[in-house]
Structure formats: structure tokens, C-alpha cells
Amino acid sequence: MSADMEDAFVQAPEHRPKMPLIQATDVPVIDISPMRMLPPGNMDALVSELSVASREWGIFMVVGHGIPEGTVTRALEAGHAFFALPAEKKAVMRRTEAAPAVGYFDEEHLQNIRDWKEVFDFFPHEPPPVGEVEDNLVFKNKWPEEDDLPGFRDALEEYANSMEELAFMLLELIARSLNLRPDQLHGFFGDQTTIMRINRYPPCPRPDLALGNGRHKDSGALTILYQDDVGGLDIRRRFDGEWLRVKPVHGSFVVNIGDLIQVWTNDKYESVEHRVSLNSEKVRFSIPYFLNPSINTIIEPLQEMVSTEDPPKYNSYNWGEFFSTRRKAGFKKHVVQINTETAQFRKQSTDCVE
Ligand SMILES: O=C(O)CCC(=O)C(=O)O
Ligand SMILES: [Fe+2]
Fold it and tell me: In terms of Cα–Cα distance, which of 220, 16, 25, 204 is closest to 118?
């Protein structure tokens, strides 16, 4: 199809980016500094801003988070150094079909089409093994040798610790905005399966045909994303399906409401569909932190979020099984696409009438 790019990367015509994109100028930017004051400042305004952003957008940016710029710079520099390693060093850390959870990878297939990117993933807390079943994921990080990349692991762990603190602050704000106990969501994250990732999107000869990340919704609880100033993150506007570019805001993090919050809130908050567009000149880096619950969590709408007038819109599902299927599905192209969307657990209208 294209002389300078393999067909594996080519998106179906309806999913190709149509340039130029509209800039999303009004994605909410939320200053969370009242959360960090001792004693905490008045949070009412903050909680209601967050509620509107989560309800209407499913995505917002946070500033006033208190994370030192140096923490971000060190993680970013570590990422640059990692991808500059010789291919044979990266190959040692490569995801394998038997252990497709974390490590280095450059063949992820979101929506069964290859993404134009390379990634390094790790678990900030290695989760306990799932059990005896042979088919299960191996939860073991694959770090480079310290001699090859001095300070790499420290820089990423420092960044992950900051993200964890921020993630728990956001969970508290979300809980407050739903009139739940401030720590009500915290209990889901005991043996968390959170993943941190560094994405490197190289310049692409055909940004009109390929994507750095195919369209998707994040399946965990929350994603906190650093993006550099190149730009490429696009979100899909709900009311008309139009794709908009999220302009990078220096010093901010992008927060995505994930599918789990959508299910827990029985659709009061909704995750946002997004993707990454490419360009032919610049390398782009981003660092997502995917806050995921404990492996054996049963996911279903929270009792407090349902009523006789608003019955549960989702069937229960097991996070570990879903997580494992989704990680495995993205490992390669399948003849028949595997359904790894949270939407598969939505009750059909006939299920509701029991
Ligand atoms: O690189 C980005 O801006 C977004 C990445 C993303 O959506 C993901 O890794 O899930
Ligand atoms: Fe994403």
C-alpha cells in the first residue's frame, strides 16, 4: 500500500487522522494545590471542577501538583537513554508471548493494527503471581543492567512514587466528588497491577496512514500522562465524534478517567476515546502511569452509584482475567480481532429486565 512503510501499520481509512485537526482549546486545567495544603484548603471549588471535567470530558490537565520538574526531567532523560541502547540490549528485555506484561516492545497491536512506537513498561509494585494456571501472566520486571544505564531504574522509580501520590490524591478528589468516603476507592489498589510506561514515537514517513497509538480507551482506573511539547494526543469529542488535538501545557499532567471509574460510577463519569497521531519530523515522548487495581478485584458498579431508578449498567468481571487477556491480545496481530473493550461487560437491555 505504501512504498516506505509496512502494511501492518496502515489504519483502515475511517481511522486515519485527517489533518489539520481542530485544537481542543478548552480541555479543563485544574489546579489541585488546595489538596496539598496543611491543613487542606477549602476543596469545594476544586471538587466541583473535577466533577464537571470527569462528567463532561473524561480528561483534564492538572497543575499545582507539586511534582518537581527535576523528577520529570530525570525520567525523560532515562527514557531517551533507554531507547538509544543498541537493539541487542533492548532485545534482552523484550516482551515475549509467554511473558507479555512488561519490558521493551515495538510491536504492540492496539485494535489489531501495529502501532508506530516503541515502549518500555514496568510495574512500580510487582504484583503477586496470579495462581497456578499455566496461561497466566508473569509479573516480573525486566530492568536493564545498571552498568548499561546508570540511574535508569532510580529515575523511573522516583517518578512512579510521585505518580502514586498524585494518583491517590486524585482518587480522593474523585471519591469526594461522588459523595463517597474520601478513601473509599483506595482499597481496590492493595496488590495493584499499576503499570508505568515510556512511549517513544519515532518520526513516521506516512503520518496520514499510521498511528502511534490506535484509538482506544484506557481500561484501568486512571491514567496520568506526561507528554513532551511535540503534541500528538488526540481525543474524540463525544457529541459529534470529531477528533481534537490536546495541546501540551508545560508543567501539567494529563489525567484520563479510565473505564474502571466509568463502571464503578455506573456511567456518571465516562472514559474518553483517544489515540496518538504522528508527524514526519519529530520524535515524541510520553510517560503514562496506568493506575490499575489488585489482580483479583471484581469490577462492578459501586452500590452507592446504583438505585432502583438507576440499576447497574454492567455485569461483574474479574480484573485479572481481563487485564491478562488485554495484555496478551496486544502482543501480535490476530486473524480474528479479540474483544478487549470494557464495553463487552455492558448489560444488554434484555439483561436489565430480569
Ligand atoms: O502518548 C500519549 O499521549 C498517549 C498514550 C496512550 O494513550 C497510552 O499509552 O495509553
Ligand atoms: Fe491511552
Answer: 204
Output the pTM of the full model.
0.94
Torsion angle of the four alpha carbons 127, 342, 107, 211, in this order, in degrees rounded to the nearest 10: -130
Ligand 1 lined by 144 (C-beta under 6 Å): no
Instruction: Please list, in sequence order, all residues whose beta carbon lies within 8 angstroms of the beta carbon of residue 202, skipping any fewer than 6 positions away.
Output: 116, 117, 118, 283
- Pocket probe for ligand 1: among 195, 199, 277, the residue whose CB has the most ligand atoms within 8 Å is 199
Check pLDDT > 70 for residue 309: yes
pLDDT, tens digit, 9 for 90 and up, residues 208-238: 999 999 999 999 999 999 999 999 999 999 8
Ligand 1, residue 218: give the atom nearest the CA.
10
* Share of the chain residues as helix, strand and coil, in percent rounded to the nearest 5: 30, 20, 50
Nearest ligand for residue 246 CA: 1
Contact (Cβ atoms closer than 8 angstroms) between residue 251 and residue 287: no
**CB distance 74 to 200 below 8 Å:** no
3-state secondary structure (DSSP) of residue 47: helix
d(CA 255, CA 93): 28
* All residues with CB under 5 Å from ion ligand 2: 218
Q: Exposure of 107 by Cβ count < 10 A (0-12 exposed, 13-18 middle, 19+ buried)? A: middle
pLDDT for the residue numbered 146: 95
Bridge partners, 109 (sequence order): 114
| C-alpha grid cell, residue 250 | 508545560
Contact assessment for residue 1 and residue 10, using Cβ atoms and an 8 Å cutoff: yes
CB 340 within 8 A of CB 110: no
